Each structure stands twice: as structure tokens, then as C-alpha cells.
Amino acid sequence: MSRQDVTAAHSGPIVNRSTHTDVSHLKRTAMKTIARYCLLAIALLLLAARPLVAQVGWSQYEVPGKGESTPAITVALFYPSAASGREIPMGPFSIRAAIRGAAEPTVKGLIMLSHGLGGVELAHSRLAEALAARGYLVAALRHPGDNYLDGSLFKKTPERYFAERPRQVSRVLDALLADPLWKDRIARDAKGPRIGVLGHSAGGYTVLALAGGVPDLAQSKQHCQEEGQDDPLYCRTVGAGWPVVPPQAGPPLKDERVRAVVAMAPMGVVFSAVSLAKVQVPVAVYAGVKDRWLVPRFHAMWVAKNIPGAALHLVPNAWHFAFMDAPSMPIQTPDGDIAADPPGFDRAAFLKALGPELADFFDKTLK
């Protein structure tokens, strides 16, 4: 064996260049495949983290008017649906639903939703979506004469304000219970259709009136004369403008079909204690501890104290608008921007938790 042969024999294995190239190619291919699977896994995780919208349908509904004294009512319907949805901006608010998605054959019940003074039917979409995802049909109405486009009901005919708001809800309820598309989908039992109501601020007043609360505007006026310095926003912007009319003038406002009530930051000082004591349906009352517009001890706490068995939920570190979706643009009110919250208050997290809590309440009280 030559010296060259001996050197070659003891210098380690001879590398096959062709084989080395094939192995490197396989390694690169494997790494690319792994990377693709990683990207796919990340994409799936991001999709899973998005708000659940595939179980909620949305459509606009209109209750026809009957002349100038009975205007048409625009309603946003949220309901369970198997259709795929997405987030859709609608002005300063948004919905997370399938537009005109097919509704499920049955719903657990019907929840009527009443917005606050000068509000809009989309301002509580997160709560409506949470209820719809749990099986309810939610009808959020835009109150004629008391919405962001039209404030004439209070400005021109304030004596009708307290009667018209609850009657508008009852009109929508009449329409849906007679509608061929919806009437047979709403669950019923021996007591009739399962109907709940949910309202915020002036909407809180509205749903409590539907349960049997009777407005006494003389009481509100006396409150502002004697305690207005402790409830200044209500008395300066709202309470001072109410005309003094006899309690429960005209036909009763109570709707016997209503079986459960949630009042969020309700305008409550207008109710007589005697009428609240006669409310017989389950009631849950919510209020922000730091509410400056409707100070809880004069409004939410007054209501809860006088309704037998009412459950009071005081939300720490919350202002009046905590129960509304945060708009995408500033909307100024006498209590500041609707989108503003006290430092440390997470409105999105609060609403995410509140939605299922309200669904639990209606599940229990409407079953």
C-alpha cells in the first residue's frame, strides 16, 4: 500500500458529495414544512381568540307606524344562527354577527332591550350578542322621539315621555308575537311566551315601568329641590325639566307578558315606593358605584330597596356608561365622553363577563 493509500485509509470517511447535497435538501424541505405548520397553528390560534360571532344572526326590523302620534319603530334583532358572521362597523358602534343569517328554529325566549336618553339600538350590541349566543331573540328598539337623531319626545311633549317609552316596547312586543317568522320560534310554557326586558338609564326606567313601577314626577321634583346638590347632573339636565303630572295618568304602563327585568343604572327616583312594592316579577338592578349622572343611592338603590326580592349589583369603579359599548369616536354628554371610564376600569372585560351573567339570570327566571 502506498503512502498515499495509507493516508487516505486513516483520514476518516470519504464524503459522498451527491449524498450530502440530498440530505441538506431534505433538511431544508423539512424545516420549511415545519415552519408552514407553525404558521398554520398560529393562524388557528388567532382565529380562536377572535370574538365568537358564528352563532349570532342580525337583521333590521320595523314596526309600522299609525300616523304622527304612533311613529314607526326601528328595531335591531339579534338571534341564534349557524351562519358565519364577522365584525361590522355601524357608525360609532359595531355588531359581531351574520347579517340576515338564518335564525335557529326555536329560541329560549324574547328579550326586549331599551336604550337610554338620546341613545341608539346598537349601543348595547355586546350584551345583545351574548344573549343571542345563549339562545335568545333580542329586540333592541330605537325609541321614536328619544334617540340620537330625534329628541322631540322630551323637548316638545315631555308630558308624554314617561308613558310613550314603555308603550313603544309593548308595540314591538305585539308585532314580534304576531309575526309569522318569529311567533312560533319563541319558547312558551303554561304562562305564555317567555319574555324578559333589559334597559339602561332611561331604558332602566322603561323596563321597570313595564314591570309595574308607576312614575310620580312630583316626587322627582321634590327630590331635586331637597337633594339636588347631591344628584346634580340628573336634576340639572333631566329631572328639572319634567312636568308635574299625576302618577299613572292614562292607561296602565305595566305589560303582563313581562316575566323578568334587568335595569342597568336606571332612572329610579321617579318611581313611587308604593308601586315598586307591588312589582312581582324577578328584578336585577345594576349600577356603577361611581355613577355621576344617576347617583345610585337615589336611583338604583331606591329601586332595589323597594322591590321585594330585587337583586342589587354595584359595579366597583364604574361610571354611568359602563353598560354601553365603547363607541369608536368621542360622543360628548353632560357627563363627559361616553367612551370614557375611570382609570383602571376595563369596560370590554366587564361587558364580556356581564353578558353571560345576564343570560344566567334570564335562564333562571324564564325557565
Could you describe the 3D structure shown?
- With 367 residues, the chain is α/β, with parallel strands linked by helices.
- Helices cover 36% and strands 19% of the residues.
- It folds into 2 domains: 3-48, no CATH class; 52-366, Rossmann fold (3-Layer(aba) Sandwich).
- It has 11 helices and 14 strands.
- The protein has a 10-stranded mixed beta sheet with strand order 3-4-1-2-6-5-9-10-11-12, with helices on both faces. A two-stranded antiparallel ribbon has the order 7-8. It has a two-stranded antiparallel ribbon with strand order 13-14.
- The termini are far apart.
Keywords summarizing the entry:
36% helix, alpha/beta, globular, single chain, two-stranded antiparallel ribbon, 2 domains, Rossmann fold, ten-stranded mixed sheet
